[in-house]
């Protein structure tokens, strides 16, 4: 009795199924990597906007001046900053409210951070402080 080998077709079908499964896994992992990269880019944009807005507010509070346009471009290249100033009202009278809007250029959806702070006066105009409290 002679044995015939009919398993070749079965082996070929098994190889095609394995390649199909690997292909599906590759597509799923590439989509996962792409969405992870997109989330990472959005988080970076949010952090850059928040850093720019808070940096501008700190500059106004500590020096009384805005960060210059060249410095903003150097520090946060893809962020545009807009500063609005208005006088405080009611219990905030005598203070100045600064609202800084930082917007990340070229992001979809639009990413921006809006930060506000009441500031009493320019640092050179302030009286008191630590030195006068110690005397």
List keywords for this structure.
single chain; 135 residues; alpha+beta; 3-stranded antiparallel beta sheet; 3 helices; 3 strands; 51% helix; rod-shaped
Quick structural overview:
With 135 residues, this protein is α+β, with helices and mostly antiparallel strands. 51% of the residues lie in helices and 19% in strands.
Structure description:
The chain has 135 residues and is an alpha+beta fold. Helices cover 51% and strands 19% of the residues. The chain has three helices and three strands. It has helices spanning 8-63, 69-75, 129-134; strands spanning 79-87, 96-104, 112-119. Mean pLDDT is 85; it is low at 128-135.
Shape: rod-shaped
Order of the strands making up the biggest sheet: 1-2-3
Rg estimate, integer Å = 30 Å
How many DSSP H or I helices? 3
- DSSP summary, beta strand count: 3
**What structural class do the secondary elements suggest?**
alpha+beta
How helical, in percent, are the residues?
A: 40-55%
* Mean of all residue-level pLDDT scores: 85
